[in-house]
């Protein structure tokens, strides 16, 4: 996420981050470590314990998920850094009007789902620490207030999270894990807990992928250096924190407290008393600051999606979009407790929907290399649709939804491997095949969704490929 509210290069009029606005690698390491030091990964480890995973299995599932995400995230980040554009703006050039509008809705919907989960979790933690009750009402209020950073640019909150709360949380969880390993019997660490929920191991890897997945990586990394491996240190350190250390910490929380996933609040209180010297106030402050700061990323994703569609309306300001996204987040948060297996549902959709569109755009830019995106087309200039791209995304996401058991009326997932990875590969291969099939046809530029301004100048690229980049 960017640290500015004055100009975020999120509208078509000026939608490309210039070279002199790019940030240092240190900035991204600090940012991604903050994003990784989150309660989502503690909750993930908690769920693994509830599903009967041993500590080694829990850490293994998280680590494999991290590797899978890493293989996706590097080209996704490179897409942002080489173009300087948001995920939503790129879809105008690559997927056309229809694709851009649909992806903007996905950006808003997926991020709103994560916001709803996060603030329901925070309200649950407050209830566990202080016995507040009224979890749904508190979560809705927190969700509305949580957009304040994006609306008013409270940089102090983000700085406090990055330099104080996140390091404190990491030290705390590390102490929890070390103390737990030192005090628990060896057989307890290697044994599988009695499962209260079914989660096959490969499905658990998919949940880990979904928990770390943003899907709109270009939004963040358009501020980075345009080098393929440049983000690797930030990703590596963040994964070690979130999907290894914090997953282990969540597993320890469940084991030591004897609680199930439905008692995460009381388990958190027990953990504070066990490893934070009973400082309930400090546990509440750390939880609030980190969850609010991390959800800056979710609101940022929602706002960029909204700005793509609404930002060019005369008189429309970015803060209008902020307010609209706050209302949407509040509605999602209110309804979240009624969603069955809410965490699994949000993580699963997150692992397949937006990443499939990102993979299609990466294939378009780095494999097919037939389309230039060095300018953001207006909505009038943008093509109606990139039909091969849309078909590839729809088929891949439908497959992923079936593989994860998300379709209406579906009793259970069929168990066919690491479904998110299979979905991404399917999206890329289908798009490459369909694009190749139509490349030599007379209407190739229209079918592939080239903007009107670029059709004549790119006809040769459609037929022969662009070898100049």
UniProtKB/TrEMBL annotation:
UniProt keyword Transmembrane, yes or no: yes
Any Pfam family: Transp_cyt_pur
Family: Belongs to the purine-cytosine permease (2.A.39) family.
Organism the protein comes from: Kutzneria chonburiensis
Transmembrane segments: 28-49, 55-80, 101-123, 129-148, 160-178, 198-216, 228-254, 274-295, 316-336, 342-363, 384-404, 424-450
Bilayer topology term: Multi-pass membrane protein
Gene3D superfamilies: Hydantoin permease
Annotated protein name in UniProt: Cytosine permease
Alphabetical UniProt keywords: Membrane, Transmembrane, Transmembrane helix
């Amino acid at each position: 996420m960017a640290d500015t509210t004055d100009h975020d290069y999120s509208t078509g009029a000026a939608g490309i981050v210039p070279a002199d606005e790019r940030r240092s690698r240190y900035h991204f390491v600090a940012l991604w470590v903050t994003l990784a030091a989150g309660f989502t990964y503690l909750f993930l480890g908690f769920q693994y314990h509830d599903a009967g995973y041993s500590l080694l299995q829990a850490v293994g599932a998280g680590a494999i998920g991290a590797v899978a995400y890493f293989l996706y995230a590097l080209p996704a980040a490179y897409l942002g850094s080489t173009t300087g554009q948001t995920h939503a703006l790129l879809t105008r050039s690559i997927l056309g009007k229809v694709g851009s509008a649909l992806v903007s809705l996905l950006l808003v919907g997926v991020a709103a789902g994560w916001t709803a989960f996060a603030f329901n979790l925070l309200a649950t933690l407050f209830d566990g620490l202080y016995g507040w009750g009224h979890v749904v009402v508190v979560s809705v209020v927190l969700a509305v207030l949580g957009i304040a950073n994006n609306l008013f640019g409270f940089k102090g909150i983000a700085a406090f999270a990055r330099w104080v709360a996140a390091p404190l949380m990491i030290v705390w969880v590390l102490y929890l894990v070390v103390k737990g390993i030192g005090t628990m019997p060896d057989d307890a660490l290697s044994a599988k807990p009695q499962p209260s929920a079914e989660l096959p191991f490969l499905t658990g890897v998919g949940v880990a992928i979904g928990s770390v997945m943003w899907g709109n990586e270009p939004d963040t990394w358009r501020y980075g250096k345009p080098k393929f491996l440049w983000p690797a240190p930030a990703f590596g350190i963040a994964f070690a924190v979130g999907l290894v250390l914090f997953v282990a910490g969540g597993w320890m929380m469940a084991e030591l407290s004897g609680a199930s996933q439905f008692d995460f609040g009381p388990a958190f209180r027990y953990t504070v008393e066990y490893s934070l010297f009973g400082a309930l106030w400090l546990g509440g402050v750390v939880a609030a600051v980190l969850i609010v700061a991390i959800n800056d990323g979710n609101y940022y994703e929602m706002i960029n999606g909204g700005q793509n569609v609404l930002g060019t309306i005369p008189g429309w300001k970015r803060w209008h979009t902020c307010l609209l996204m706050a209302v949407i987040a509040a509605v999602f948060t209110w309804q979240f407790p009624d969603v069955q297996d809410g965490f699994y549902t949000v993580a699963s959709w997150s692992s397949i929907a937006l990443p499939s569109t990102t993979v299609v755009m990466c294939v378009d830019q780095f494999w097919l290399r037939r389309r230039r995106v060095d300018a953001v087309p207006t909505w009038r200039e943008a093509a109606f649709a990139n039909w091969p791209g849309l078909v590839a995304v729809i088929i891949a996401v439908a497959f992923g939804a079936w593989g994860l058991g998300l379709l209406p009326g579906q009793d259970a997932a069929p168990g066919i491997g690491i479904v998110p990875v299979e979905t991404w590969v399917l999206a890329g291969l289908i798009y490459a095949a369909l694009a190749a099939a139509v490349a030599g046809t007379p209407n190739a530029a229209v079918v592939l969704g080239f903007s009107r301004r670029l059709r004549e100048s790119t006809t040769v690229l459609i037929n022969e490929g662009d070898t100049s980049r």
